[in-house]
Amino acid sequence: MRAAGTRRSGARLPSRIGRRAVAVAAAAGLLGGALTACGSDGASSRKTEIRLTYATGDETGNAIIKAVTEAYNARSKTTSVRLDPLPAGTDYATAVKTMDATGNWPAIIDMRDTATYIAAKKLAPLPAQVTSLLSDDVYGKAADGNVYTTPMNAMNGESGINIVYDKDYFAQNGLKVPATYAEFIALLQAIKDKGQTPLATAAGEIWPSDQLWKPLAAPVFAEWSDKGGFWNAVTEGKASIEDLREPLERLKHITDTYVLKGWQSTADAQTTTLLVNHKAVMATSSAGIGRLTDIKKVDPEFNAGLFVIPDDEGNLDVLKYSVNGDLAMGWAISAQAQKNKVQYDAAVDFLTYWYSVEAGNLMEKTGGLAPNIKRAGEITRNTSTPGAQDYFDLLKNPKLVWYDNDIESTKFSAFNTFFRQTRIEMQDGQITVDQAVAKAQAEFDKSVKQG
Fold it and tell me: What is the spatial distance between Cα 31 and Cα 50, in angstroms, rounded to a whole number?
């Protein structure tokens, strides 16, 4: 099997027999899932090749996967991991459905819509060899008692969905990080009064629209944290989309009044450039410390800061990532790979390396946060990126409130895409808040409640 992006070269085969011999040999390699290479002594060494599929979009995340994979391939005598990057957001979900329909699953996958694929028996249980390396609270067992996904990075939840800002501008204009939602609105207005655009945000890929929406909706979601989660309550008829009217109205007001024009076609990664080029004083982010690293790469002198939009009481309501459910994400091994013991063992070996101290140090050097492994105390944390200390301080902030919003329905992910698009239409003035509430409720009842 050829690695992606390479070409075979050499003399033309002299006959049809020669071509057929090579074809048979190539087919054997494909069926065996192995690579063959000649050593300096002429002997052949065989490596099992496995495919790793992941969603792109975050430059730092892409760089981390590439760096760890290259390090693993260099040290492993048995396995070669081939990266298979796919588009992020809804395009990624579509690509996974296509892989499933064609029976072309990779050995390791950056899993989305997890509950759906567990129910369809498309994922393999992860062994204790992998899970025992992690802190106990960052993974969980599914209803059948098995663990199917483990986190790719630090399991802190949606603290990545926050605001990055120009610290120098704040200092020069006597501005400070807001302590309440009212102060956040006052901050936006103060920047606008100075003739600057307060906020850049993105919706070009649909999913980045969550970055401004979720902090605004978080206080409502947090109210249902100990009652089974907001969306489960909507399914049971105990709550409704109407309960989200206030955050929807706030979203509409901020978009109309303070957001940089062109947000509808802006990609998530573009907000970094907009901030560094002073097109806006603040920008939404989905990547937390990864976004700060991206800013540093674009402009090492840019003095970036980071904060989470507070609620009316000053709490920082942040969703803790689900370790199960349809919104759970992380590394998974496909059931297709499980059918081939060599492929499965190779995938387990790679994940074992991913959760090692060596890989953790490499992730930190590359600009990310290493997963919460049991040996985390041995990892050297990278605090050199401007704004990184803000991120670590956030995780220790006494006002930080973790909440749960696990979703039991396997139909929710399709509704979530619909709801994002509905919010964008509302923000764009195509429909009113009333129409957005009614439209979203009707779709939820049809696709989730009724299955």
Answer: 12
Secondary structure (DSSP) of 371-391: --BTTGGGS-----STTHHHH
- CA nearest to 323, candidates 279, 390, 371, 251: 371
Question: Along the 451 residues of the chain, how does pLDDT read in single tens digits?
Answer: 333 333 333 333 333 334 333 333 333 333 334 444 443 333 346 899 999 999 997 788 899 999 999 999 999 999 999 999 998 776 888 899 999 999 999 999 999 888 889 989 999 999 999 999 999 888 888 889 999 999 998 877 888 899 999 999 999 999 999 999 999 999 999 999 999 999 999 999 898 999 999 999 999 999 999 999 999 999 999 999 999 999 999 999 999 999 999 999 999 989 999 999 999 999 999 888 889 988 998 999 999 999 999 999 999 999 987 777 666 789 999 999 999 999 999 999 999 999 999 999 999 999 888 999 999 999 998 888 899 999 989 988 999 999 999 888 888 888 999 999 999 999 999 999 999 999 999 999 999 987 6
Helix axes 59-75 and 341-354, enclosed angle (nearest 10): 120
| C-alpha to C-alpha distance for 404 and 290, rounded to whole angstroms | 23
Q: Which residues contact 338 (CB under 8 A, 6 or more apart)?
A: 124, 344
- Classify residue 443 as exposed, middle or buried by CB count within 10 Å of its CB (0-12, 13-18, 19+): middle
What are the Cα distances from residue 230, in Å, to 4, 120, 217, 241?
A: 44, 25, 11, 10
Calculate helix-pair angle for 245-258, 210-223, nearest 10 degrees: 150
> C-alpha angle with apex 160: 395 to 207, nearest 5 degrees?
155
Integer Cα distance of 431 and 252 in angstroms: 11
Sequence-separated contacts (24+) of 427-436 with Cβ below 8 Å: 427/203, 427/209, 427/251, 427/252, 427/255, 427/256, 427/263, 428/264, 433/245, 433/248, 433/249, 433/252, 436/248
Contacting residues for 302 by C-beta, under 8 A, at least 6 apart:
166, 275, 276, 295, 296, 386
Tokens of 68: 């760890």
Per-residue b/e over 350-363, b at no fewer than 16 CB within 10 Å?
bbbbbbbbebbbbb
Q: Rounded distance, CA 278 to CA 230, Å?
A: 38
**What is the reported pTM?**
0.74
Instruction: Tell me, rounded to whole angstroms, the distance of Cα 134 from its chain centroid.
Output: 19
- The number of beta carbons lying within 10 Å of the beta carbon of residue 55 is 23
Indicate the DSSP class of residue 447: I
28: Cβ contacts below 8 Å, ≥ 6 apart = none
Six token digits for residue 149: 């996904």
